[in-house]
Structure formats: C-alpha cells, structure tokens
Amino acid sequence: MASVWKEFSKGLWAEIPPFRVVLGLCPTLAVTKSAENGIGMGLAVIFVLVLSNALISLVRKIIPKKVRIVCFIAIAATLVVAIELLMQAFTYPLYQQLGIFVPLIVVNCIILGRAEAFAAKNPVHLAIADGLGMGIGFTVALTFLGSLRELLGAGQLFGHAVMGGSFKPFTIMIEAPGAFIALGCLLALMNCISIVSARRAGKEPSVNAGGCGCGCCEVKQ
Questions:
Q1: pLDDT range class, residue 166, cuts 50, 70, 90
Q2: Which of 166, 192, 186 is closest to 32 using CA atoms?
Q3: I want to staple 133 with a disulfide (CB 3.0 to 4.6 A). Which of 11, 27, 146, 153 is the partner?
Q4: Between vectors from CA 9 to CA 5 and to CA 10, what angle results, nearest 5°?
Q5: Strand 160-161 vs strand 156-157: parallel, antiparallel, or unpaired?
C-alpha cells in the first residue's frame, strides 16, 4: 500500500504536470480560458491516462521493444476515440469548446511519457496509481489555471459572475498572452514554495525537485 500511495501522491505535488515535469503545456496554454475547460480536459486526460497505463502494464511483456512506441500510440488512440464519442454524446458543448485538443490527447507528452517511463516497467496496480495521480494533478493544474484566467479576464468563475460591477476585467488574461503570464506566475510561486519548504527542512533548495521534463525519459530502441 505504501508503494501505491507513493506512486499516486507524487503526481499531486512533487511531479505535478505541467508545473513540475513541464509536460502537456499545449492543452495547458490553449484550453484554460475558463475553469470548465480546464476540468473537462483534465477529466478526459485522466480517462485516457489511467486506462492506457493499465493496458500497457498488462501487455508490456509481450510487446516487442522495437514497436513499443507504436503500440503505445495505438492504445492511446483507441481510448481517445472512446472519450471523444462519450463527450459528443453527453457533453457536446464542452467538446466543441475543447476542439482539436481532445484528439491531440493521443500525442500528449504526459500519456506517452508515463507509458514509456513507468507503465511499461511496472505492475498494473502501480501503473494505475501512477496514472490516476498524474491525471488528477494535471486536472487540478488546468482547473486552477483556468479559474485564475477566467476570474481576472472576465470576472467570472465556471461561467457565473463573481466580481462586483466596478471590476474591470484584464481581457489579456483570456487571450494567448494571458496563458503564458498566468503559467509563469504559477511556476514562480511553486518554485518559491519549494525553496522555502526546503530551507525550513534544512535541505538544499531546488526549483525543480520533481523532475526535469522530457529530457528525463530515456528512449532505448
């Protein structure tokens, strides 16, 4: 149980994407104009990530190494088609807002990164815990970023006005530059929290304690 909790919890802070391992920045920047978009994209990624991790872990010993990436993509693509159909059936307005970024989950660095770095090397229960933790962390990150941009850029939260009539929206926050500004501020805040926490614990401060991005994934043919 300790191992399961360790693999699950790392995605909630120590390796939370996109703030720690800096993966999945494309949907992070593109769809977080609102909190609803953030949570919708996050839930779709959880669905694909957890099931792809589980399936890849189950068949990892029978997949030839030379074609493993192709197999990982095929599994992810199948699951993305499934979530697309579910969203079209039950949340069509949200599906329209997310647009092309739903099918692009297939090539999301988080999906392929966790498949290669973890699911292909670990048993299924740990792979599921890893995928669920990373997915929830990604969802929280997108929802928080979307809430911040929607609040400052439109004075709303989940589509409902929450600011007074005298509030002047910073419309740049719901535009493309606003995504970079908000993400940069959140990255700086998390780095400050990590440095302060490390100093209080008597450890060497590090601004990237959880990972090093795509460069950490060693690909062997």
A1: confident
A2: 186
A3: 11
A4: 120
A5: antiparallel
